[in-house]
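Handout, section B. The chain below has 132 residues.
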Amino acid sequence: MAERETSTGFESGFVPGRHIIDTYGNGGFRFAGMSHRGSILLLPSGVRAWEVTEPRAIDRAALRPVQAEAGGIELLLVGTGLDIAAIDPALRGWLKDFGVGLDVMQTGAAARTYNILVAENRKVAAALIAVA
């Protein structure tokens, strides 16, 4: 399980609500006045700790929370770390079956794009692999 650093409520690995990413790097993220070491999923219901540490671990099981909230998501941004990595085309098709588009980019670009789309009140989610 990912190590968590927080003083305001992310100990459970979940914080409800939509939050922008304040900063990223050093192996984690800052959002909603909290800090988390490790990867995260940003969903309409809230922010979750995500066990994925490398792009090849992104599969249906890793994205089940996205499937569960697909009705509130039109686009999933996937941040694959410092480099852009290919995602299995079958996974793209699986998400499309639930009405969710997929855009893959570096984690920093995905975090910035997520923040912009949330500010525009778009139905966006993000799966972000932590970077050093």
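Note. The first strand starts at residue 14 and ends at 16. Compare this with the example in section A.
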